[in-house]
Amino acid sequence: MTISAKLMEALRQRREQVFAGGGEDKIKARREKGLLSARDRLAVLFEAHTFQEIGAHIKHACRHFGMADKVLPGDGVVVGTGFVDGRPVAAVSQDFTVTGGALGKMHAKKIVEAMNLAMKVGCPLVAFKDSAGARIQEGVDSLSGYGEVFYKNVEASGVIPQIAVILGPCAGGASYSPALMDFIIMTKNNAHMFITGPEVIKAVTGRQCSMDEVGSATMHASVSGNVHFVADDDQHAIAIVKKLLSYLPSNNAEDPPHQPTPNIALTPDPALETLIPDASNEPMDVRKIIARIVDSGDFLENHASFAPNIVTCFARIEGVVIGIIANNSIFKAGALDIDASDKGARFIRFCNCFNIPILTLVDVPGFLPGIEQERSGIIRHGAKMLFAYAGSTVPMVTLILRKAYGGSYLAMCSQEMGADVVLSWPCGEIAVMGAEGAVNILYRKELSETTKDRAAKAAELAAEYRREFASPYVAAGQGYITDVIEPSETRGILALTFRKLLTKRAIRPPKKHGNIPL
């Protein structure tokens, strides 16, 4: 028995209606603006012919405000699975051409279904956000739908990687789902994300502001810290998604996609030594150091514009995937402040969730002093770094490049905070504080009695203190440092160290979870 031609034709017509979304005119208008449609985005993300849709024929459930007879293809969202670089990935793509991509009960049901499937099979979730927010006509049903999505975001957290891509409006409650995911990518020109827009802010507070001030990609990437990557357009955003996925495991039970080289190259790199300034208080761009250490100088930095005094990025060393956290002294001397602590702690915890080894590069003079920092809770925020490192069980290697002072030395993963191996360059300085500050305290009386050449005497004492008490050999002599290495040896030594640590196993006391100082 064969299916009748009439039934086949009916199926094709239904598919055509669903695939057309809000209509060819709307899709054409978007493309003329340089925007991709909801289905275009999935086509760019996935390998050809691998996308399988979920819930294409779903219908909305609203019967009020003239909605009963309205046809909303796919209920304004396209969901399904496909392959990215040979690995399965689940994706959600909101369709702005259908009622502005507004979320209703069935719209949310489709998103949750995709998330459930992603957790069942253990694959990443990519969500293209392009929505005007809750579908007002559905009232509390739309709010219930958001609640189900948020709950599932939290359930999936630490189980599968979740990546949000903001390519249009993401307003009100819609912005909380991306905030609950691991990474947010946002286009700079066509996307906005906010809880309350300029009109509401003006009505409630009387203060006038622009959309860019409260919801642009630039603001979120540099001020609020909500956005991890800024993209030029839809195509660029999807390229970032693919690059990011190339470093991540499919789920928390798998290792990252390591590509270990058969033979580890141990060739020295003298160029590293040319990047180190003569004086420890001169700024040093740690990105240049990272580029000499990692494979082909290639690394993917996230949160690049937010708290630039600390760098967080993914890279490979001799094929082994690692996450790197590094102080960058060209901004705020590399000191840890509130934003840098939040940024570093969250990155550390992500790496630990997904079995990504961590390299910490230390050049830190301390926590940033200031009344604003103290009143805003630098103690609470700085403690997040301590909590994140101490709670991590992945392989952790720390390399002291130059300064490692006071509590910030511990907050940058000292041996006591869980580092498996701690290395230092010969110019490393490990002490409670910098030599100049220590001398002013320890030799206050002698310096006060010096009638002339006080500066010269202080410099002499500081040099002596640095040599006798802040030298890496002092810490190495106490067993706090595994080894002092030449900068030129760094890449080879790190490659060997991480390769040997990949089988690390750590057992922690059974508990629900720790109570991070939020």
* Low-confidence runs of at least 5 consecutive residues: none
What is the C-alpha radius of gyration, as a whole number of Å?
Answer: 27 Å
Tell me the number of structural domains.
Answer: 3
- Can you name the CATH architecture of the largest domain? Alpha-Beta Complex
The number of distinct β-strands equals 16
Give me the number of helical elements: 20
* Major sheet size, sense and barrel closure: 8 strands, mixed
Q: What is the overall shape?
A: elongated
The CATH homologous superfamily of the largest domain is termed: 2-enoyl-CoA Hydratase, Chain A, domain 1
How far apart the termini lie comes to 64 Å
Which CATH class of the largest domain applies here?
Alpha Beta
Q: Structural class given helices, strands, pairing?
A: alpha/beta
- The CATH topology of the largest domain corresponds to 2-enoyl-CoA Hydratase, Chain A, domain 1
Q: What's the helical proportion of residues?
A: 25-40%
Mean pLDDT: 92
Strand percent estimate: 15-25%
What features would you highlight for this structure?
2-enoyl-CoA Hydratase, Chain A, domain 1; 518 residues; 38% helix; 16 strands; alpha/beta; single chain
Describe this structure as you would to a colleague.
By secondary structure, the protein is of the alpha/beta class. The chain folds into three domains: 13-245, 2-enoyl-CoA Hydratase, Chain A, domain 1 (Alpha-Beta Complex), CATH 3.90.226.10; 270-432 and 471-501, Alpha-Beta Complex (2-enoyl-CoA Hydratase, Chain A, domain 1), CATH 3.90.226; 435-469. Helix content is 38%, strand content 18%. The protein has 20 helices and 16 strands. Strands 1, 2, 3, 4, 5, 6, 7 and 8 form an eight-stranded mixed β-sheet that branches. Strand 9 and strand 10 (310-317) form a beta hairpin. Helix 4 (105-121) packs parallel to helix 5 and helix 12 packs parallel to helix 14. The longest helix is centred in the first third of the chain and has 17 residues, at 105-121. It is elongated. The model has no long low-confidence stretch (mean pLDDT 92).
